[in-house]
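I would like you to sit down with the record closing this message with an eye to the fold:
=====
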Amino acid sequence: MKIKLLTGFAAAMLLTSCAQDETFENTNLQNGELKTANTARGIASTVTFITETTNHPQRMDPGQSISLSYNIYTYRLEMQGDSNLVLYQDRPGFTRAIWSTNTHRDSGTPWLIAQNDGNLVIYNNGNPIWHTNSSVSENVSNPHIKMQLYTRSGGSIPAGIRIKLVLGGNNVERKTFAEVDLSDFY
């Protein structure tokens, strides 16, 4: 009986080990680097996480923003009073917009909200004017917005720093709604 139980336990461990190998077959995390292989295209790339915002709001009203700093730059995602969501790159004495939703309105009361249906929406006077088209049928707990800074290289991908704007919820990154290659702005 003890031998059969041990054999069953060993078989379960072997199956678990094989399942893990299959799950992580194309992903390898070492020293802060996430190495991935896109087997569908035969492209291998390395992603190195640098930093992310510590404030992850669910709602942003006009004038509110989230930001992160790296070297001499600060990246700021701001919900503007003109209904436009804009990502700025700031350095001492210089500010420029590097991404926006292009939702400028001459009037109205805007806000941005990560909804419990999994969608990120800009409203103006209660009317939706932009969204991520990411709603789901189940409830999304703790929906929020964040920014992440990382590098990506390998294959035919040019090396460089990138920033992504992420809609999160249910303790996962649900959707990247914008990604900007910052090498174009240095």
Summary: Confidence is low (pLDDT under 50) at residues 1-33, 35-40.
